[in-house]
């Protein structure tokens, strides 16, 4: 089963940048915690490669960013994982945007970021290689998070979160060691920062 | 044979030929030999003030009357001038071979016969001797040892030239294009080399005479012809991986007609670079080739030739597929066949005009069947059948000794029927080309060409090219050419109708994209159309503009140096891009003209004949190939990378390694040595391929990380051969002697040892 471990890093750089840029405003006094979630297991449906039919359907794994744990579908989940698809909780009006940048350097939700929620026809975090958070390399059959893609989420509790997906394979192995035939996939490792005071600054 | 040689020496040759006297009695004693002591057939002896005398194929020299000076000529040899006394007293007249291959006749560069030294574009000619000393059996094994050429592995062994992929290189067999590409790659392993007389390598765009595909360059494979002699050769070669290659060559010739039959069979057990994975890297296969050439004179003015070739290849193997029931074994059976039929009629009403009518028909097909081992049920079945026909009329007019004008007109029909395409598809095309060979001064050659293509699918295209050469001195000449190339969108890009059931995505060729999207929309499968449907289906040809410039320098009579620098600016490269997002979250793709790429570099070859029996050569190629859009995105700070510690940072220009599968540095070093006592020829070659990017690892899909490179490697190859007195030939050797192999190079099996022989049966019986 999935193990969720919590490791805390002090985000000094972020704190430093914020304090420099915004001398007049009220800067967060304590640096925000970076939460690392490891090996969240969210395997995809099992599909017959011949026919494309689903042999065994699997459910999404519902995750609360506020609680940093898996929750039930009827609870206050923010995002949900299955295979390479990441949903947001549209019933709780959770919205998300995908931006480019270095995770640590994103100190504020950019004005240009457009937040959407999931609809019947589209996902706030687009699916498909190159569209959202991952690239599928058809030469090596490997799914790799796109470096520099940061997912911004406005949670069910109206707080902003920035997320960086680090790996899709169990144990977050170095990318050159991934063998798509043997390394178990559908295991998310990601880091995120939650701003719980309701502002858009990290 | 008809020649258009504006070169002075060749003109002398022609003049001499026209006044040959054959009536004189033979001089039984005297022989004209090469430095190996072999008789040079068809040499010419010119006695001053008299008609030139032709030496026959057995080396018999007609007698002439006493004169002051005697000059002896032969193609490919330095001419020799003797006094009458010397001529009479010598029993053996030995001619020195011209060093290097500047005298080699090249057909593909201008579609008329010219020697390398007259051509203002970068051309290399490989002789049958160079082909033989590689010990190669398939064409890829010959070309991989040449400077600036790489063999890449993508649906077969494809050729990379000037940093451009197999898709952009035209392959000709006896001057006619070969068809049949899989995912753009022309598999060079389809071509057996046993009956190759020479190979012309023409670098840079040649669309000005060949149209589509000749964007990076042209390879022309010329098979052997035996004029005025009969041959029967049997050969057998055996090599590692239980590979066998028996072949038969038969030539029947008299003064007017000659016929060549060639049969070749190759079979191998294949090899496996990753034994831990089910299935081999290269599956066992059996390939057979039959080729028949008949040519002759109908009358003095009409010549006719017929060329027919058939190729069949069968391979089988196994694969493993994962499914709900666990891993399952699959049996693969693949077939590939190829038939060519090319009749040619040539009419030469007088010395100035030549009119050539060529027909060329080609059928190419593949069939691949994949079945479950457990129950024999079909897993996958694919068929692909392509037909190509071309009729071409070429008129050459030699206006005077300085101007040769060529006009060509042609019509093309192409059809394709395949599992992944709907119905039978047909393309029609027409073209004309105009070429002017001009030697304004004895030191200058200029070739100007223009070709117009009219295509039923992508419209019209004009391809100009101009090349010039200036002879700075006897020893040094400078060449430059500027030209345009293009490649028409292929069947796949226009017609593909593919649905990957497992992953749930669709790929539509440009012609079908609008319909495909409409159909998916009707079925309610589309979430969002990403591209304006108006612009779907507007696929244009990929285009390039190129400049090549270099020099040929002979600092001494035993040394020659060739250098060529080039830059290809390629636009409108066709790639897939999503056109619509499906409700499942997957995409539907189609083809678009997206990328722009630059390839540039320098290639040089140095050859030195150190001793009579020892020569060295060295080649070096520098290549820089990059994607301009990637560079723009790097400059805009839009591409990131993550290091082993999962820290993200922006990619800089210095990180960017250019296109995948290109070696920045490559080269070769070759030693040819003849051991005089035993008569054994040794050919040692070290072929270096610098590191190259083999695939993205860090997720940004560009080459920017040391882990994304395959290491540099050197292949040490050695061939020892001996030709016995009556032409019996034995060879033994090995390639990649250090046994270097990596999965990054799936077409390199590691060490290969070989042994072979060729028996000239008729020669052995006759003497």
Automatic annotation (TrEMBL), chain A:
Pfam families associated with the record: HmuY
Alphabetical list of PROSITE patterns matching this protein: PROKAR_LIPOPROTEIN
CDD domains: HmuY
Name assigned to this protein: HmuY protein
Organism this protein belongs to: Belliella buryatensis
From TrEMBL, chain B:
Signal sequence, start to end: 1-23
Any Pfam family the entry gives: Plug
Record-level GO cellular component terms: cell outer membrane
PROSITE patterns linked: TONB_DEPENDENT_REC_3
GO molecular function terms noted in the UniProt entry: siderophore uptake transmembrane transporter activity
Subcellular localization, as worded in the UniProt entry: Cell outer membrane
Keyword Acyltransferase: no
GO BP of this protein: siderophore transmembrane transport
InterPro entries (alphabetical): Beta-barrel_TonB, Beta-barrel_TonB_sf, Plug_dom, Plug_dom_sf, TonB-dep_rcpt-like
Domain TonB-dependent receptor-like beta-barrel: 254-737
Superkingdom of origin organism: Bacteria
Record key words, sorted: Cell outer membrane, Membrane, Receptor, Signal, TonB box, Transmembrane, Transmembrane beta strand, Transport
Bilayer topology: Multi-pass membrane protein
Record-annotated TonB-dependent receptor plug domain positions: 116-218
Protein family according to the UniProt entry: Belongs to the TonB-dependent receptor family.
PANTHER family tied to this protein: HEMOGLOBIN AND HEMOGLOBIN-HAPTOGLOBIN-BINDING PROTEIN 1-RELATED, TONB-DEPENDENT OUTER MEMBRANE RECEPTOR
Protein name: Outer membrane receptor for ferrienterochelin and colicins
Organism this protein belongs to: Belliella buryatensis
